[in-house]
Amino acid sequence: MASSVEQSSSPLRIYGIARTRAFRALWVAQELGLDFEHLPIEIGEAGARAPEFLAINPNGRLPFIVDDGFVLFESLAITLYLAKKHSHGKLYPATLQDEARAWQWSFWAISEVDRGVNIWSLHAVRLPPAERDAQKRDAALAVLAAPFRVLDAAVAMQPYLLGGDFTVADLNVAAVISRAVDMDLAGVPRLKAWLDRCLERPAARAALALKAQADRETPPDVTRRIARINRL
Ligand SMILES: N[C@@H](CCC(=O)N[C@@H](CS)C(=O)NCC(=O)O)C(=O)O
């Protein structure tokens, strides 16, 4: 059943600091040119797990949105919902089959690559060098090798996942693996070219700038907490 909260002055509120999976919601909102309010709350007790936010999203995780009183959590459900609401037949596919393929790639991204990319980025880039675990980093790369080959092949003969046009399928997969831009992707050159194409879009660049700023402002203690809370 849908939950609802009191109406705010903005039609759409996106909760979550841009360093988190809130980046995905921020990207789609920019892509759609929406009027929205960003509430960059943190993870944990001081943020998403504080009583006032648990009352909206009882999972205590980020992101979540409130859209005209309609509450939604799960980052890729949010992108699919907003794309379908505001761009049916364009960013959101028009046909039943293409819609199903957008779901397919979204579920694929969450189940096949989301955790691996996060573990890799923490232990290759985001934790202080002395605290990075090379075994975890290499194990994550090993897990990602097969799905990355699948993605590389999917964009070998066409510029985007569903064909000639950028859709929410591309946005979801590229957002999930966006931190892979720091990886050596020489072995999957078509994936790399596709990822660059997606992340060079003005809306992606705007959301990436928020993410980069949040990364820069994140103290090491918070990064350690992220690794601990999310068991990465
Ligand atoms: N599958 C969820 C995952 C949400 C999630 O794990 N969010 C992280 C931040 S990126 C979080 O809130 N972690 C802190 C916690 O679990 O307390 C989604 O895609 O929205």
Which residues form runs of ≥5 with pLDDT under 50? Answer: 1-7
Count of individual domains: 2
Using the coordinates above, name the CATH class of the largest domain: Mainly Alpha
Q: What is the overall shape? A: globular
| Helical/strand content category | alpha+beta
Please work out how many helical segments DSSP would assign: 9
> How far apart, in Å, are the first and last alpha carbons?
32 Å
Task: Name the ligand types.
Answer: glutathione
Short description:
By secondary structure, the protein is of the alpha+beta class. Helices cover 53% and strands 7% of the residues.
Which structural traits does this protein have?
disordered N terminus; Glutaredoxin; Glutathione S-transferase Yfyf (Class Pi), Chain A, domain 2; binds glutathione; 232 residues; alpha+beta; 4-stranded mixed β-sheet; 2 domains
